[in-house]
Design goal:
Glycerol-3-phosphate (1)-acyltransferase; 245 residues; seven-stranded mixed beta sheet; 8 helices; alpha/beta
């Protein structure tokens, strides 16, 4: 118990240092840069995501071709997914609107240029799709979690089709991804996955007390000729499920 408490305190201070230096670095690297702003912010996020992974000595095992542009569709288990994927490859994320107000992660998400979507406002979907297209045209890798929420990883939830319009047509490459976590002293379904009635700070403190985490990320190129978003959602989910097995 004493060892766990010391880990939580030490890692909390470590994380606080990463947050402070990350915000300072943003001022110098990103705040006043207009040209290539998305790319610069994505690389800024990658730099500090990699630093955050060192807290857990976490080096993800990667299988498949790592995407650098286009669209990446992945399953979604935790706020840790964004840290892991950012550390692997610079990216722009699409996230539900309430993440904007999260402590720590919300601030970094806003600074990193995350595209926020309010799923309760159907009229906003067109604007979000336009923003995604612009990021793609700028050469960015855009990451979407089409389940629409996180889960405990036992399955991959049905994909929502509302934000899949930019994936219709062959203009931009499409990659599917699957993330899996393991834990030396606990159950990743409860201790890493952030879902159901979990609240941020208790979950984060519990996670900081764990001895060591591991992550496996698998990627595969996706090709489909369909122009129907609902059909595309089904096919994308099938491909992510293949990576899970």
């Amino acid at each position: 118990m004493a060892g766990r408490s010391l880990r939580i305190i030490g890692r909390s201070l470590w994380l606080g240092g990463i947050i402070a230096t990350g915000l300072l670095d943003f001022l110098f690297r990103c705040a006043f840069r207009k040209k290539d702003a998305r790319a610069i912010r994505a690389r800024w996020l990658q730099c500090h995501a990699r630093r955050a992974m060192k807290i857990f000595a976490l080096k993800p095992m990667i299988d498949g071709p790592v995407p650098t542009r286009g669209l990446l569709f992945s399953n979604h288990l935790s706020y840790l997914d964004i840290v892991v994927l950012s550390a692997i490859t610079p990216a722009v994320f699409v996230s539900k609107d309430d993440v904007r107000s999260w402590p720590i992660f919300g601030q970094f998400a806003r600074l990193a240029g995350t595209v926020f979507v309010d799923r309760t406002r159907r009229t906003q979907v067109g604007d979000v799709n336009d923003e995604i297209r612009q990021a793609l045209d700028d050469g960015a890798l855009v990451v979407l979690f089409p389940e629409g929420t996180s889960s405990n990883g036992e399955t991959v939830l049905p994909f929502k089709s509302s934000l899949l319009q930019p994936a219709v047509g062959p203009k931009h490459p499409i990659t599917v991804g699957h993330i899996r976590y393991a834990l030396a002293d606990g159950d990743p379904r409860d201790d890493i996955c952030y879902w159901g009635d979990d609240t941020f700070f208790p979950h984060m403190l519990n996670l900081l007390g764990k001895r060591q985490l591991s992550a496996t990320v698998r990627f595969a190129t996706f090709r489909s000729a369909t122009s129907d978003r609902k059909e595309l959602a089904v096919k994308l989910r099938e491909e992510v499920l293949k990576l899970k097995s």
